[in-house]
């Protein structure tokens, strides 16, 4: 049975009746009068938390008081607590607990908007997916050049006409999930004097298949994601694109996500970065105990969009930063335009600055695809340590090996090769490999500890560790490693275990953090 989304309301009129129709929400109400008349309220709330788990969302309709913020210290998590704007005050802003848990005011124009907002964000988990450009059908009347580039993009070049005319539609629909705000983000890029017009049609599921709503937006209206308000039924979202003008259009995937409105991307507190070519990465910062180090985790390949590694990193108690790459099929190895890559570096640097940490109080980490991000950006940031499992560094080689070594498996590498180098030639394969090595070899690595768990018979990047080791040796870097028999996707539990063990060793040795509860027998 899915876990319920647990809400605690403090003060105001009890809003539980509004949520009675939402079976996935558990609503608790706390009367602030208990602060004065019931000294046992702390024990009562502790009993609720112990019996049913922590609250996912806390909504406060009460003036500031030390008693209230002391309660928040017991029950709040970062980003999950909102104070009704009518009660927000300077006292809230300046309180240490409010700052620690990133407590924010809840803004709304009227009661209906407030209730809709609370309903929209009250759901457990996270979800996102996409429809690939390889599933787009080019309109038969378009007579220009057409190039399909896997899951990366569909390229259309030529004369599109003076008026908007259809150029493509997707044979697969997106799914609109009832009772959720659905966020839509189409990837596209334009060369030349071309304008685009996207049409999103909501078609109710069932025998009728009735058209419920049609949304038409030009490319300049899509600088921010489209958000479709909640509806009490499931539906499909069909997508068509029109164009006018002359030039080249690059149509990428169309992303669909469960929205948390202005409260976060995927998770409460989640964020996204997008460059001028509409390429994204997502990130989430958890302040932990605000003590060194900052642990950065790059997500691995995942077709379901969202953050990875939250609970693993949270158990370490230190501040952590999750970074995810939702592009292509399941990620694009965290590389892209100089603007995109600088965006990742800036997010890490700004988080260090927020914590008042130095670069030696930083650990970068990742598994599989995430290992590339950890090693590539780690070489540029001078961290205390880089911890990786199943390292992948030669993306061109990974793409090349799809032909004979692992047929029809992990075509994402081909998408990344073509989107970065333009084709699959041997020259492009080597150029993409060198993108990593030119960065990694020219940086000083002597002050960084490298902890690497790798597969002995890896069929993605067979020589990754053997090629990394001489470079690390030449830089006099300290290296810890563990080899596991098997191919790339074999024995992930053992790799994950060593990944956590390496973390525990470095946290204790370099930062005095003893992870007793997390230590495992090796």
UniProtKB/TrEMBL annotation:
This is Accessory Sec system protein Asp2. Pfam families: Asp2. It comes from Staphylococcus aureus. It comes from the Bacteria. One of its GO terms (biological process) is protein transport.
């Amino acid at each position: 049975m899915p876990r319920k989304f647990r809400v605690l309301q403090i003060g105001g009129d009890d809003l539980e009746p509004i949520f009675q129709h939402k079976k996935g929400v558990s609503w608790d109400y706390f009367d602030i009068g208990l602060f004065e008349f019931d000294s046992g309220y702390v024990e009562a709330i502790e009993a609720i938390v112990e019996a049913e788990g922590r609250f996912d969302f806390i909504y406060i309709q009460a003036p500031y008081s030390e008693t209230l913020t002391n309660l928040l210290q017991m029950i709040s998590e970062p980003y999950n607590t909102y104070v009704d704007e009518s009660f927000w005050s300077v006292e809230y802003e300046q309180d240490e607990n409010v700052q620690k848990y990133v407590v924010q005011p809840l803004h709304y124009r009227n009661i209906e908007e407030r209730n809709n907002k609370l309903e929209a964000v009250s759901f457990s988990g996270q979800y996102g997916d996409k429809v690939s450009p390889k599933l787009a059908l080019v309109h038969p009347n378009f007579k220009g050049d057409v190039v399909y580039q896997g899951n990366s993009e569909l390229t259309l070049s030529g004369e599109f006409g003076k008026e908007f005319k259809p150029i493509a539609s997707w044979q697969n629909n997106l799914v609109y999930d009832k009772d959720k705000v659905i966020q839509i983000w189409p990837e596209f890029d334009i060369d030349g004097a071309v304008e685009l017009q996207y049409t999103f049609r909501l078609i109710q599921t069932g025998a009728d298949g009735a058209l419920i709503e049609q949304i038409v937006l030009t490319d300049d209206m899509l600088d921010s994601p489209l958000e479709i308000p909640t509806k009490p039924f499931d539906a499909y979202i069909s997508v068509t694109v029109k164009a006018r003008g002359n030039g080249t259009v690059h149509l990428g995937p169309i992303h669909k996500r469960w929205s948390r409105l202005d409260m976060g991307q995927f998770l409460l507190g989640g964020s996204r970065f997008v460059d001028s070519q509409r390429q994204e990465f997502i990130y989430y910062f958890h302040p932990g105990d605000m003590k060194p180090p900052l642990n950065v985790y790059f997500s691995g390949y995942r077709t379901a969009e969202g953050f990875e590694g939250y609970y693993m990193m949270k158990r370490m108690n230190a501040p952590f930063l999750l970074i995810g790459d939702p592009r292509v099929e399941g990620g694009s190895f965290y590389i892209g335009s100089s603007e995109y890559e600088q965006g990742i570096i800036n997010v890490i640097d700004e988080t260090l600055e927020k914590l008042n940490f130095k670069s030696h109080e930083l650990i970068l980490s990742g598994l599989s695809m995430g290992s590339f991000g950890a090693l590539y950006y780690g070489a540029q940031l001078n961290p205390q340590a880089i911890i990786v499992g199943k390292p992948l560094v030669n993306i061109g080689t990974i793409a090349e090996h799809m032909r004979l070594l692992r047929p029809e498996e992990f075509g994402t590498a081909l998408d990344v090769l073509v989107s970065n180098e333009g084709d699959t030639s041997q020259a492009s394969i080597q150029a993409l490999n060198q993108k990593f090595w030119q960065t990694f070899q020219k940086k000083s690595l002597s002050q960084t500890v490298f902890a690497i768990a790798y597969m002995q018979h890896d069929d993605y990047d067979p020589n990754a560790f053997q090629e990394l080791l001489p470079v690390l040796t030449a830089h006099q870097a300290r290296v810890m490693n563990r080899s596991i028999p098997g191919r790339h996707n074999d024995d992930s539990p053992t790799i994950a275990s060593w990944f956590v063990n390496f973390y525990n060793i470095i946290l204790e040795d370099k930062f005095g953090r003893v992870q007793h509860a997390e230590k495992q027998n090796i």
